[in-house]
Automatic annotation (TrEMBL):
This is Response regulator containing a CheY-like receiver domain and an HTH DNA-binding domain. The modification 4-aspartylphosphate is found at residue 56. The keyword Repeat does not apply. SUPFAM superfamilies: C-terminal effector domain of the bipartite response regulators (SSF46894), CheY-like (SSF52172). It comes from Blastococcus saxobsidens (strain DD2). PROSITE patterns: HTH_LUXR_1 (PS00622), HTH_LUXR_2 (PS50043), RESPONSE_REGULATORY (PS50110). Keywords: DNA-binding, Phosphoprotein, Transcription, Transcription regulation. GO terms for biological process: phosphorelay signal transduction system; regulation of DNA-templated transcription. The gene is yxjL. Residues 5-122 form the Response regulatory domain. InterPro entries: CheY-like_superfamily (IPR011006), NreC/VraR/RcsB-like_REC (IPR058245), Sig_transdc_resp-reg_C-effctor (IPR016032), Sig_transdc_resp-reg_receiver (IPR001789), Tscrpt_reg_LuxR_C (IPR000792), WalR-like (IPR039420).
Length: 216
């Protein structure tokens, strides 16, 4: 099994050191670099080619929001960005997601919860902290008036899948809910992302709310 390559970005060297110890102890995770500013993160990411970047938001030189946006602009597929936060400011969190982050994890979370969040982001098969993520997007995303034709490019089945994605269901859970195979669900999710121009499930949910597809 190939280990997931991780980049740690936080202006607190003790936080980075502690995370490295925790994450490097997992057989399927390996820390390939770290940085203390957003600008340094861009340089280290280019040199180390990580799968997932654990990104602090408030940092000197370049904050995590701007760094996330730059990483996404460089490559729309990878790395995935997992924002690390104390959850003090919803606006910062939403702006991070809008910039292209795939999810967020609380700094006070247990190590097992953080590790699970990293794996979820890397797999892309469900939302991280789905209840909090949906509340955050529903509260902060600007929205058009809701209507049945909000996303006319989607088929009826794709619309069903998007609603369940927004509810935080994994591919396996969606398959069970709609009585479909996991492979069929995976195909529908990929089609939804392509049609909405979304790099991952989080960005698809943001698009669904902004275009009036989801009730608030």
């Amino acid at each position: 099994m190939t280990a997931l390559r991780l980049l740690l970005v936080d202006d607190d060297v003790l936080v980075r050191s502690g995370l490295r110890v925790i994450l490097d102890s997992e057989a399927d995770l390996t820390v390939v670099g770290d940085a203390g500013t957003g600008r340094a993160a861009l340089e280290v990411a280019a040199a180390t080619d990580p799968d997932v970047v654990l990104m602090d938001v408030r940092m000197p030189d370049m904050d995590g929001i701007a760094a996330t946006a730059e990483l996404v602009a460089r490559d729309p597929v990878r790395p995935r960005v997992l924002v690390l936060t104390t959850f003090e400011d919803d606006d910062y969190l939403f702006r991070s997601l809008r910039a292209g982050a795939s999810g967020f994890a609380l700094k006070r979370a247990d190590p097992d919860e953080l590790i699970d969040a990293i794996r979820v982001v890397a797999r892309g098969t469900s939302l991280v902290l789905p209840d909090l993520t949906r509340r955050l997007i529903a509260t902060h995303a600007p929205s058009r008036a809701r209507g049945t034709a909000a996303l006319p490019e989607l088929t009826g089945r794709e619309a069903d899948v998007l609603r369940l994605v927004a509810g935080g269901l994994s591919n396996a859970e969606i398959a069970a809910e709609l009585h479909l195979s996991r492979e069929t669900v995976k195909t529908h999710v990929s089609s939804v992302l392509l049609k909405l121009g979304a790099r991952d499930r989080t960005q698809a949910v943001i698009a669904a709310y902004e275009r009036g597809f989801m009730a608030r």
